[in-house]
Structure formats: structure tokens, C-alpha cells
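Key result, reporting period 2: structure in, sequence out.
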């Protein structure tokens, strides 16, 4: 259950729903498996899996949710081969070429035929809402997966004002400064991995793994103008992570000192064990994010959410319409 990748979003409005209220809103969108002609389906499942029935797991003010996505797996090579066979049969029979539009229709027919027999692949996407910290934390390695979960959550509860977490200082400039010094920020040590990019040359990238990041070779690249876009760090009690220029965290590895905090608490069943691990993890992530934001100059609260931008534009349109009505000719 320990998160390995973090995509963090800042709540721009107070989140006041209780666990029970959130469960009721998610319930109509509970996951149901793909039908015979569905290519994919997504819905909410209990974070506790078979050990629970609630769609929201509540611990110490944190609200855990879990989205399940199921997709039919149909290899593209198999589809293309079948389409080619059908197109060739038509060409031989009717002595003509099969055009692009007709090939697309053939492809649709093939997918329609194969979909009921296709294997279904499922994946779980965990996230939790931290109202007291003011953010949503998603265990996702890509922005696309995180945004998909947020969109499903937004549809279920009607409104969710969030923006990607951002700091006051530009991440790549801060990370470049740290390595050039070289001096890691407070509570952090340099890891053994980084990615350097040349801002002047598109595609010029240097990836370093299992390297001393304070070595002269890396320093020379930085002096030459390259910037750090990904940086491996070790935080406090040996927690390892990779942070990038979007403040996304990957390869998060909690140390034994952290996991032992959960192991040292007795649990009578799987549900209690999940509850303990979730509580320890959420508290550690909260402290990690606060230290990380401090390292980047503090939290940037100037970015407006999509909902705030739309609301602002609506207010401006209404004000303009009101002024137009007041004009006397």
C-alpha cells in the first residue's frame, strides 16, 4: 500500500466533505466490469479491497479513495494482420484498391468481433485527500493517470478545485544551484541519480545513475550551462526519492526506520494493518512535502484552478452584460 510515485495537487478551496458524504457521492460510480463490447471501464472500489466495503477509508483526517480501471487487451499487431487479410481478400475479389476509410471500417469490424473474447486487464489507482494540509496526493507515475483520477473524482462530487503543486522558486534553477554549490537543502542529502538538460539545445540530455553527483564531471556540465531537471535525494530517516522539474516525485522508497513505525504497532486483522500503514505513510508524506516546498522557496499559492478561472470569466461576462444593459442611447 506504500505509495511509490507522488503527483500532488493543491486544494484551492476548502474540502469539507466527510468520509460518509464522499462515500455516498462515489457510490453511483462504483466499478462494474467491462461488458462484451466495452473497451474500457473505470469506477470506484473500496481501498481495503476484499477486506472492506466503504469507498472511502478515513484515518487521522486523511481520506483514501481507489479507482479501478479495466481495459480490454487486443494486440494492435493482431488487429492489423486481420485487417490486412480482409483488405487483400477484397482487393483480389473485386480487383481494386481498398482505401483508408474502408480499412478503418474493416478495423472497426475486427475490433467488434474480437472485443468480447479479449482478455481484460485491470489496475488500481490510489489517492488520498488531505484537507488539513490542503492537497490531494495521487500514487501515479504520469500526469495523465493522475488527471484521469481527478476528472472522475470531480464528476462524482460535482466540484473539486485543485491545481498542480508548485513552489515559489523554479525547480530546475534551484536543483541546479544545489548541485553547483554543491550543497543539498536542509533535511536532504544528494542521492546517486540525476538528469541534466541543455536549455539551448532541444533533445540534449544527460542521465546519470549510480554516480557521485558532486563529481567534477557533473559540475563541469552545470558550469557549461546544463540544468538539473530530475534529482535523486535522500530525506531525513533515509527516505529515497526522485524529484523532477514539475515537483512530481518518483521512485519513492520508504526506509526501514519508517516502515518499522507501522510494524511496531499490533494489528488484529488486514483492515487494521492497512489503517496503520496509511496513517504512518500520510504523516511521513506530509512532512516530506513541507520540507521539499521549503527547499524550493515555499508554496506558490498564486496559481488559480480551472474552476476559479472559469468562475472569474463568468463573473466578468455577467458584469459586462450588466453594464451593456445600463447603457442609455
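The corresponding designed sequence is given below.
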Amino acid at each position: 500500500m506504500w505509495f511509490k510515485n507522488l503527483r500532488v495537487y493543491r486544494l484551492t478551496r476548502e474540502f469539507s466533505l466527510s468520509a460518509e458524504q464522499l462515500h455516498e457521492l462515489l457510490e453511483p460510480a462504483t466499478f462494474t466490469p467491462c461488458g462484451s463490447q466495452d473497451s474500457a471501464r473505470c469506477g470506484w472500489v473500496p481501498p481495503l479491497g476484499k477486506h472492506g466495503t466503504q469507498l472511502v477509508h478515513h484515518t487521522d483526517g486523511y481520506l483514501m479513495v481507489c479507482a479501478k480501471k479495466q481495459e480490454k487487451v487486443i494486440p494492435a499487431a493482431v488487429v492489423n494482420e486481420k485487417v490486412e487479410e480482409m483488405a487483400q481478400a477484397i482487393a483480389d475479389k473485386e480487383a481494386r484498391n481498398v482505401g483508408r476509410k474502408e480499412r478503418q471500417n474493416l478495423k472497426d469490424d475486427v475490433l467488434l468481433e474480437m472485443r468480447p473474447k479479449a482478455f481484460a486487464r485491470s489496475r488500481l489507482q490510489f489517492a488520498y485527500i488531505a484537507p488539513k494540509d490542503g492537497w490531494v496526493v495521487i500514487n501515479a507515475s504520469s500526469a495523465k493517470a493522475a488527471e484521469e483520477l481527478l476528472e472522475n473524482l470531480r464528476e462524482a462530487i460535482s466540484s473539486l478545485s485543485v491545481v498542480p503543486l508548485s513552489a515559489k522558486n523554479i525547480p530546475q534553477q534551484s536543483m541546479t544551484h544545489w548541485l553547483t554549490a554543491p550543497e543539498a537543502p536542509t533535511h536532504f542529502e544528494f542521492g546517486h541519480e540525476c538528469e541534466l538538460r541543455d536549455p539551448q539545445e532541444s533533445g540534449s540530455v544527460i542521465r546519470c545513475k549510480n554516480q557521485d553527483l558532486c563529481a567534477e564531471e557533473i559540475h563541469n556540465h552545470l558550469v557549461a550551462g546544463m540544468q538539473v531537471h530530475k534529482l535523486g535525494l535522500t530525506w531525513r530517516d533515509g527516505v529515497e526519492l526522485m524529484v523532477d522539474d514539475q515537483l512530481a516525485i518518483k521512485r519513492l522508497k520508504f526506509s526501514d526506520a519508517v516502515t518499522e513505525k507501522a510494524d511496531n504497532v499490533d494489528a488484529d486483522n488486514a483492515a487494521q494493518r492497512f489503517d496503520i500503514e496509511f496513517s504512518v505513510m500520510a504523516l511521513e508524506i506530509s512532512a516530506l512535502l513541507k520540507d521539499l516546498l521549503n527547499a524550493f522557496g515555499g508554496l506558490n499559492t498564486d496559481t488559480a484552478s480551472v474552476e476559479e478561472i472559469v468562475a472569474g470569466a463568468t463573473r466578468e461576462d455577467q458584469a459586462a452584460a450588466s453594464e451593456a444593459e445600463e447603457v442609455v442611447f
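The first strand starts at residue 7 and ends at 11. Residues 7-73+118-164 form one domain. This case is discussed further under Risks and Mitigation.
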